[in-house]
Amino acid sequence: MSYRAYDNDSLGFTTRQLHAGYNPADHYRSKAVPIYQTAAFELGDFDRCTRLFEYSEEGHSYVRFSNPTNTVLEKRIASLEGGTSALALASGMAAISNTILNLANAGDEIVAVHTLYGGSTALLAKTLPDYGIHTRFVEDENDIESYRKEINGRTRAIYIESLGNPGITILDIEKIASLAHEHNIPLVIDNTFATPYLFQAFEYGVDIICYSATKYLAGHGTIIAGLVVESGKFNWLNGKFPQFEKFYDEFKNNIEPETLKREMFTKRLRIRFLTDLGSHVSPQTVFYLLQGMETLSLRMERHTKNAQAVAEFLEEHPQVKSVAYPGLKSSPYNSLAQKYFSKGPGAIMSIRLKGGLEAAKTVLENVQVFDYMVNVGDAKSLIVHSATSTHFGLNKEECAKAGVYDDTLRLSVGIEDTEDLINDLSQALGAIK
Ligand SMILES: *Cc1c(COP(=O)(O)O)cnc(C)c1O
């Protein structure tokens, strides 16, 4: 009997999270995806070596460029997103930084929002300007005109998150995609908090998706990894991206031109940046990530169910000033949540406490089921004080723009029994004097 689930994109999401991109017949029929623990591959004959290095034949030579374990992951995430191709990298920040470098040369600009992961804000606002890549941050991320104002002839992309950090903002993504395309630039989204199960970004016009796979995709807090996925719909030869035109001319005789066009972002990311900057993720790590992804949809269902219950509990609590979770009717993002997140707007929320910094400390020091950690997207519930951790180093004004105050706690709701989570928060809030 032949095994055909590995390349059938009409199968459901949960079936594909288990099977897509892996054909056991190519791997001694091993049912689990093997870890190819080697630094390099035998090249075979002389002509094959040439074909591998000019990219006219797919295959593996040196593990920093590619290896069969990582290829399964790349095909699997591309299938789950409905994209043409993907690249695995060493971390979420490697995925994001390499993506920006693939898009922008010195003198080019990015338009981004303030409500980003702290590391992404630091990359765009502090690190990349030293290399000539500048970011204009929009004044009001909820107003499309604010984005339009920041776009000029040097802009090479708009960069946003599907669920903003840590205020869990939801932007009108379709409108932002249209604006980007009006200017012949791509929309790049960090979909870490949502995952492909909760949000199918390409359906709304997004061109490039970045992930910290460290979070929900892996799901168990055991590894660090990143992913970049490409829709295949953006025309990189539209005149705005000389680096892609050069790349196309270099490879059009070796790679079938239509394939090259559809997978151009990923191919250039691999051939230029993975190869030259070396943010390789080891196949051992990818194995854990693939294990985690096998249960992604099941975990996300439980995460969102718990998050909704926790948010509703916290909203009613007398020590809580406000809860930022788009699943709440009171959230200004509730209608956008219904439009974009029919399965629930993730499981991360932030709350503000009436008792200020002291109350925040008390909660952190009294939780017993929630763990005091900077991570998110673990199967276990986590809680953190953003201003002194994830957003450390940003000034008060930058923090306020991101929705981070002294009295703000961010919660990443896990998959434990709902009542244990509510009881834990109840006793920790009860300890506030
Ligand atoms: C964690 C995170 C990142 C960075 O990912 P690493 O894997 O830690 O490098 C980027 N974006 C978001 C939204 C994150 O939560």
From TrEMBL:
Its cofactor is pyridoxal 5'-phosphate. Keywords: Pyridoxal phosphate, Transferase. Its EC number is 4.4.1.2. Transmembrane segments: none annotated. GO terms for cellular component: cytoplasm. It holds the Pfam family Cys_Met_Meta_PP. PROSITE patterns: CYS_MET_METAB_PP. It catalyses: L-homocysteine + H2O = 2-oxobutanoate + hydrogen sulfide + NH4(+) + H(+); L-methionine + H2O = methanethiol + 2-oxobutanoate + NH4(+). The modification N6-(pyridoxal phosphate)lysine is found at residue 215. One of its GO terms (biological process) is cysteine biosynthetic process from serine. GO terms for molecular function: cysteine synthase activity; homocysteine desulfhydrase activity; methionine gamma-lyase activity; O-acetylhomoserine aminocarboxypropyltransferase activity; pyridoxal phosphate binding. SUPFAM superfamilies: PLP-dependent transferases. NCBIfam families: OAH_OAS_sulfhy (TIGR01326). Belongs to the trans-sulfuration enzymes family. This is homocysteine desulfhydrase. It comes from Ruminiclostridium cellobioparum subsp. termitidis CT1112. The lineage of its organism: Bacteria, Bacillati, Bacillota, Clostridia, Eubacteriales.
